[in-house]
Amino acid sequence: MSKVFTGNFTQQEPIPATGIEAAVAVMKSGRIHRYNVVGDDIGETAQLELEFADYVGSKYCLAVASGGYALATAMRAVGVQPGDMVLTNAFTLAPVPGAIAAVGAKPVFVGVTPSLTIDLDDLREKISQAKVLLLSHMRGHLCDMDALLELCCAHGVIVVEDCAHTMGAKWNGRMSGTDGLVGCYSTQTYKHINSGEGGLLVTNDPQVMARATMMSGSYMMFGKHPAGPDVDVYDQIRYETPNMSGRMDHLRAAILRPQLADLDRQIARWNDRYRRVEQAISDCAGLTVIKRPQAEFYVGSSIQFLLMDWAGADIQSVLQRCAARGVELKWFGAPEPVGFTSRYDSWTYAPKQSLPDSDPILHAILDMRLPLTFDLADCDLIAEIICEEVTAVYTATQA
Ligand SMILES: *Cc1c(COP(=O)(O)O)cnc(C)c1O
Question: How far is CA 74 from CA 14, 57, 160, 184, 216, in A?
């Protein structure tokens, strides 16, 4: 009998007890709205903003309702207008082109390399088509950020970073999300800290933060943002900026704060699991692991590998065989979007584009979550199953 894995790929760890206690205290107080505070208390939401700004080393931080909301707000705050073109990754998730579309702008997709990062050559070719790049560090893979910044800077292109998968990651020691003009993070359940829904936006630019804060629904309460710019920055901005409510509340902030305090320890646990699986599948014939650059400090909350040049039917066969043994792989290249996966050509609201160099890579990407509820023995078993099933299908095709 072949072994079967029985763990759950979408099971996160419980909220830390201190977070539960803090959330209960918020509920007991009845003051859940972020501006509903008394006396000197700045409240959980503003505390979280201060702590997150400190964690990434950014001047300002704003907590919002979701990662997607943070992205769309960042688009507006840096001045993207309806009809504008915005450069973004072809390999990303739906909320990224969605944030561009939310502003009435249009995505220009930039290709993906076999390292699963944005293709800088393709970016160089397309860079004159837009003034803004929404850079998605998809599945936690950081491109050569030094080269990217140099290229964007030379062309006056503003960089907004989607750090949904890189909260806590670094490039050459710099925290992910602090290289661009704005960094956006998600605190949705499957990301690195979990409040069900939620988002964070960081920047060092006082104007951008003031606009984002007004948009998030601060009414005239912008003075209650200790992690925001001085109130005089709002002199004009408060009249000019529409309110598009999307605030975070104290309840979410209360459960996020202890998770943020513990994030570095969690990252080490994710990376133990990642390296365990990576090591075990690295010799598997037919399968390519993703090389991680020296300058990258990643958070291995998920792992990807390539089945390069495989026929779709064979990839499907690996998926089915692994699923039958309890291992949930996701195929980003599936012809039809399933679950959380989707491809650039399934977002038909975007102008039709073709990326012939990226298509074979997208076709080859398999992806797997590594929740912290898995232990190292789970990782060994999962890797063993993947390797056995990939080998079985691969050997049959070589015969
Ligand atoms: C989850 C995610 C987002 C947005 O997060 P939500 O909080 O779900 O809106 C953005 N980009 C990527 C790559 C994501 O995976």
Answer: 31, 18, 7, 8, 11
Radius of gyration of the chain (CA): 22
Taking the C-alpha atoms of residue 160 and residue 181, their distance in angstroms, rounded to an integer, is 6
Span 239-253, average pLDDT = 97
Return the ligand 1 atom nearest residue 138 CA: 13
Integer Cα distance of 197 and 95 in angstroms: 13
Fold of 17-261: Aspartate Aminotransferase; domain 2 (3.40.640)
- Identify the residues whose C-beta falls under 6 Å from ligand 1: 66-68, 92-93, 95-96, 136, 138, 162, 164-165, 186, 188, 199
pLDDT tens by residue, 251-298: 999 999 999 999 999 999 999 999 999 999 999 999 999 999 999 999
Residue 191 CA: nearest ligand 1 atom is 1
Options 3.60.130.10, 3.90.1150.10, 2.40.40.20, 1.10.10.10; which CATH number does 263-398 get?
Answer: 3.90.1150.10
Measured in angstroms, how far is the CA atom of residue 186 from the centroid of ligand 1? 6
Cα of 56 from ligand 1 centre, angstroms: 19
* pLDDT band per the 50, 70, 90 thresholds, residue 128: very high
- Measured CA to CA in angstroms, residue 83 lies from 98, 130, 355 at distances of 14, 11, 22
- What are the residue boundaries of the structural domains of the chain, listed by start? 17-261, 263-398
